[in-house]
Amino acid sequence: MDQKKATLTLPDGKIIELPFIEGKMGKPAIDISQLSQHGLHTYDPGFMSTASCGSAITFIDGEKSILLYRGYPIEQLAEHCDFLDVAYLLLNGELPNQNEKTKYVSEVKKHYLLHDQLNSVFRGFRRDAHPMAVMAAVVASKSAFYFDEMNVYNRNHRKISANRLIGKVPSIAAWSYLYNLGRPFNYPRNDLSYAANFLNMLFSSPTQDYEINPVLVRAFERILILHADHEQNASTSTVRLVGSSGANPFACISSGIASLWGPAHGGANEATLKMLQEIRSESRIGEYIERAKDSTDSFRLMGFGHRVYRNKDPRAEIMRKTCHEVLSELGLENDSIFKLALKLEKIALEDDYFVKKKLYPNVDFYSGIVMRALGIPNSMFTAVFALARTAGWIAHWNEMFVADNLKIGRPRQIYKGKLLRNVSLDRNVSKD
Ligand SMILES: CC(C)(COP(=O)(O)OP(=O)(O)OC[C@H]1O[C@@H](n2cnc3c(N)ncnc32)[C@H](O)[C@@H]1OP(=O)(O)O)[C@@H](O)C(=O)NCCC(=O)NCCS
Fold it and tell me: Which Pfam families match (predicted)?
């Protein structure tokens, strides 16, 4: 069957035929990769209309509020799986059977411990450094530990790197916080689940064990699952772009952490809680809603809106339920921040501005409240997101090498600067 084509008519009447990609799940695209042969580029700031790659990992339908990892709905994964099931799924394409799971868990746990030399890397930072700054730097520093033996084009090397990263990132995240507090670095425990191990590292101390509460561990597990991947967002695209040059995987993941830190991306859960703490009382909600609607004010309602979900964020509903479960387990149903959040949500959802622009609460609106209830400090919210997203980042990084048309990422630009000119021999001459 002939391939369908899209036609592009240029101002001079020239017609260019472009391959039309049917796409799966009703998501067609136009292949413009040959346009440069005609001396043309497309212009798409923010990649609003550009697919930078093909991927079989995650599917999102923002209009229909669908999120699938390898074809499985996020709701089912959050209900029936743990985080390492999901990490395995993202990396390998299938959920593990019992044997595969046992083997995978033991492979990941083998990499839990950090090199002892990393103690000195942590100790080089100011005590008040933000955990994300420390995490980005420490993860990047691991490329100096695993450099010589690393060949990114070798499948087995990539697999070991994935296990190393998923195994070590919980300790790196927890230690970034412990260093901040001046507390001793807790070691990981292989006898605990991935989620429980992280909470234990964060909260136990040599003088006091951390009491593992299964409801709280499950809630944390859900946070990890919901944040594990989200196709070509800013940080994942960053990881792919850095990785496309053949860079060391630790350096790639570090660049993802740096990108994630921004408040428009992973920093939103921290920003949401800060905003709720700043609003403080229900009587001030109206003032903040008005500010969010004011186009001359840069303030936005944090935890609302999403680049891809132009309808509800399917993760938000799961997080909302989890929020209720955690607060009820801890007897915090009357928590003032939670009540404020519910009130703000209600007012915003009934407001014409938010309704017309289809701005709904996103997953970050609730995940901050859950993490606060678990005792996780604001400054660690994005670090937890990075911990979860490491699974997605490394799956995308790996997929990039499996794809048969791996090319170094090199976007073009529309030049807006000065036209060709000569260096003046007299620099005092006016520069217009
Ligand atoms: C996520 C986000 C960056 C998406 O941005 P985007 O896809 O570029 O969407 P836009 O910035 O074009 O927003 C579309 C319109 O909605 C408005 N808008 C979007 N999010 C808004 C918010 N949270 N509060 C108030 N107005 C918002 C924009 O001002 C814009 O209005 P305009 O058309 O009059 O200019 C944006 O919604 C945002 O900043 N949200 C708050 C941060 C957040 O929660 N991020 C977490 C994402 S998981």
Answer: Citrate_synt
The CA R_g of the chain, rounded to the nearest whole Å, is: 24
Q: Give distance in angstroms: CA of 352 to centre of ligand 1.
A: 15
Smallest CA-to-CA distance from 310 within 344, 346, 364, 357 is with 357
Is 357 near ligand 1, meaning CB less than 6 Å away? Answer: yes
Q: Which ranges constitute the DSSP H helices of 265-313?
A: 268-279, 285-293
What residues pair up with 205 in beta bridges, in sequence order?
A: 208
| Domains in the chain: ranges and CATH | 5-66 (2.20.28.60), 73-262 (1.10.580.10), 268-374 (1.10.230.10)
Enzyme catalytic residues? 306, 364
Residues 338-360: tens digit of each pLDDT:
899 989 999 999 999 999 999 99
Q: Rounded CA gap, 129 and 135, in Å?
A: 10
Interatomic CA distance for residues 329 and 346, integer angstroms: 24
Neighbours of 73 (CB within 10 A): 14
CA–centroid distance, 382 to ligand 1, in Å, is 19
Tell me, using a 6 A CB cutoff, whether residue 188 lines ligand 1. Answer: no
CA 41 to chain CA centroid, nearest Å: 29
DSSP codes of every residue in 373-384: HHT--GGGHHHH
Mean pLDDT of 112-129: 94
- Residue 360's CB is within 10 A of a number of other CB atoms, namely 23
Report the candidate in 314, 381, 431 with the shortest Cα–Cα distance to residue 177: 381
Query: The tokens 């791996």 sit on which residue?
Result: 406
Is-contact 69 315, C-beta < 8 A? no
pLDDT at position 1 is 60
Give me the helices (H) in 67-117, please. Answer: 74-80, 83-92, 98-109
Pocket test for ligand 1, best of 297, 307, 364, 366 (most atoms within 8 A of CB): 307
Banded pLDDT at 3 (limits 50, 70, 90): confident
